Amino acid sequence: MASVTAMQSPHAAPDPAKDNIVEVRDITKFYGTDIHALDSINLAFPTSQMTTLLGPSGCGKTTLLKIIAGLLEPTAGEVFVKGKPVTGPGPERAFVFQDFALLPWATVLRNVAFGLELTHQPKAEREEKARQYIDKVGLGGFEDKYPHELSGGMRQRVGLARALAVNADVLLMDEPFSAVDEQTRRKFQEDLLHLLSVEKKSVIFVTHSIEEAVYVSDQIVLLSPRPGRIHSTIRPEISRDASPDDIRRDKAYLDTVEEIWNNLRKYLD
Amino acid sequence: MVLFGHRIPPAYSLLIWIGLWELAGRLELAFILPPFSSVIAELWVLAQRADFHAAALQTLQSFFIGMVIAIIGGVAIGFAMGRSRVANSILGMWVNIFASAPLSSLVPVLMLLFGLGQTTIIVTVVLFAIWIIALDTYAGVRHISPSLSEMGQSFGASRWQLLTKVLFWAALPEILAGIRMGLIRAVKGIVIGQLLVSVVALGRLFRTFSDNFQFEEFWALTLILFVFALAFSSMIGWLEHKVEYYAGSRI
């Protein structure tokens, strides 16, 4: 069964507890003067868990993720990472982009090592590390290929390896599978879950796919649109020990998908 | 081209034109047009003359200095315009005006300003080449996907790293196209400029040849300039080809 917590009243001054790796407090975002993207968002992201921001388009889920990443400045409010307020990007957070954002002139190896290159790690060291993660995401043998020689799914594996290679505590994933075809997507989700169970990362994941959210998440934050507000938080209590196919047939899984759909359908015009 | 059922490689059409030229020359249709073969013979002689060497060296040197200034300046202006709205509103109009203006008319003014030496040639080259390089660089910078700069930022790139490791390379195909166009314009500029000024370097040779009705020499010099222009532009074309593999796959 899934437990639902309505978020009508925001927590009064949340404590930067150790079990929450990221917290956002009273985040409000206006684009210009009239587009109200986010309205006083208060959220906590538990350490070593996968939290998904889910909602229809216009709910500000990507905006919130980019504010957490330090790529966008909030109009009001604060972001705390490991208890400390942050205002820009930092080495404890790594971003995985919807359109992969790979350097098209660089090989897979250099792309994966790029975060380490920017922090001036010696070439041999960073390439050694990059090779490890290339293997972990299942791209061994493709080190010297260029992005345009890879399929969409493989490109996103490069993006994932690049984010893992910098050894950040938090992975921020912006609809990472939306540009990938359905079959590849399923396989990728399974591989991601497996990889994360080994790597012990905290993940903040943005998606508009309900099934994807329920399949991968420990915690799902439903956002409602115009302006973006937290609708509710759901913790799908699905056993991760079952095989992927069993999970997709699991009653709890299907019920949670249904419940979220019932919550979100009223926002569709 | 297909002739009598045979495919003729495009390069052969050049041979046909050369043949026509030779024929027209031999028939003495126009006194300004000597046969191609005597132009080539003269080219050989010209290539060994000391005054040609001195003039060609001076022109070439000025051309290179001018191109380096135009490339650095043009890329800098293009990046400033592409990255900053303020710079774009200040510079944009002027760059567009200069890129389409008939700059040849300015060359006599430059001569007055900078005298009759190498400086005038250099300034001419810069003036002819820099604007199109700036415009193409600007187009390239605007073409860069925003997520690529976000990627750089999120992995901790400094402004300088972002510029040199991400943005410059992402705009490189357009920058090279701009340089190639600028180069062609600079060759035009240098020819027009030197014909107008015609007291320094190759311009003086041109003037001497045409004033003395030495049309073999005149055409030989023209051919040399054509070949140089073609060689430079193919060199840049080759560089463009080297980055082609990613130019089309950028998002």
Secondary structure elements and their pairing?
The complex is a heterodimer of chains A (269) and B (251).
Chain A: E1 2-6, E2 20-31, E3 35-46, E4 50-54, H1 61-69, E5 76-81, E6 84-86, E7 93-96, H2 108-112, H3 114-118, H4 123-136, H5 152-165, E8 170-174, H6 182-199, E9 202-207, H7 210-216, E10 219-224, E11 229-236, H8 244-249, H9 251-264
Chain B: E1 2-3, E2 6-7, H1 11-26, H2 36-46, H3 50-83, H4 85-100, H5 107-114, H6 118-143, H7 146-154, H8 159-197, H9 201-211, H10 215-247
Antiparallel strand pairs in B: 1-2
Helix pairs in contact in B: 2-10, 3-4, 3-6, 3-8, 3-9, 4-6, 5-6, 6-8, 7-8, 8-9, 8-10, 9-10
Q: How does this model look, in words?
A:
Chain A is globular, with a radius of gyration of 18 Å. Chain A has 269 residues and is α/β, with parallel strands linked by helices. Chain A has helices spanning 61-69, 108-112, 114-118, 123-136, 152-165, 182-199, 210-216, 244-249, 251-264, and strands at 2-6, 20-31, 35-46, 50-54, 76-81, 84-86, 93-96, 170-174, 202-207, 219-224, 229-236. Chain A has 9 helices and 11 strands. Helix content of chain A is 34%, strand content 27%. In chain A, helix 4 crosses helix 5 and helix 7 (210-216) packs across helix 9. The longest helix of chain A is centred in the C-terminal third of the chain and has 18 residues, at 182-199. By secondary structure, chain B is mainly α. Chain B has a single domain, classed as MetI-like (MetI-like fold), CATH 1.10.3720.10. Chain B has a two-stranded antiparallel sheet with strand order 1-2. In chain B, strand 1 and strand 2 (6-7) form a beta hairpin. The chains are: A alpha/beta (269), B mainly alpha (251). Chain A binds chain B through residues 66, 69-71, 89-91, 93-95, 97-101, 103-105, 114-115, 117-119, 146-148, 162, 166, and chain B through 145, 147-148, 150-157, 161, 165-166, 169-170, 172, 243, 245-246, 248-251.
